[in-house]
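Lecture 7 notes: from sequence to structure.

We start with a single chain of 282 residues. Read the sequence below before looking at the structure.
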Amino acid sequence: MGQKSVEDANRTYFQALATSRASLGQLPTLAILILALLGALSYFFNAPSAAQGHQVLWLVRDVNMILIGMSAVVLLISVFRRLLYRFQAMFSTVMAVAALGLVYSVCLLPLPLVTFVETQGEREYRSDIFVIFVIAASAILVGAIVVHALMLRHRLRVGHSEERTIGNFVAVSRSNRSKIVWITFGLVAVVPNVLTSGQYLANSLGAIGLIFFACVTPSLPVEFAYLAYLKSKDRAYWEARPPRLPKDERRRLARKTAMWVFGIAVALALFWVFAKNFSAGV
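Now the structure, written as tokens:
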């Protein structure tokens, strides 16, 4: 593929990205996801528990509160669509940061599973495991971001729409990833549980969840950040501001939004009941 074709292919890819997954219209969706995830997790972390060492989960609540506040501000700003589309480079950067916040949120999900242990009838959250979790999660995330950045660099060199090259690259990636997944599953899940009669099953599932989320999700902030860079250099990557919706369409969207809000409220209520029963059980 010639240099001009590579540039055209990359331009086409990122213009499509700007109008789909990385569209500024998706910014409130990212903010709502972060609010829902961190809101539920923060409630669970702060809920009273009979298990010893539950306070170790409080160590992340300050970070959670900051991200929740930032997400609420982003959600509020996203209402002003004219502002979003007027300063697209800036708000695409905000979207990349929000994507990173989403990565943090999903990687935090396995924390209670990993740190909770039961030994000789006593149940506790282990601070030493928490420290290992933080170090391991940080190392995996940094490594995954570097890998995704290198993958993006490779695709920029060959052109995103080069089907044969990208197809071979994805095939090799899948092959290696499959081997890594099976090796990781054996080392992290099967071996410890065979040796301990399933005592660490929940911890193993949490570790696998952390590895999966930390390896897969960083592709979003990497690509979003590069798109924000492109928007700051060339308006060819800017999105056209969507036209004002007809009245019937606005009503339909309002009903859909109300259903989403109701669904999230129900989910949080169910999670509250589960967390309360779980705390009472332990």
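Residues 3-242 form one domain. Keep this in mind for problem set 3.
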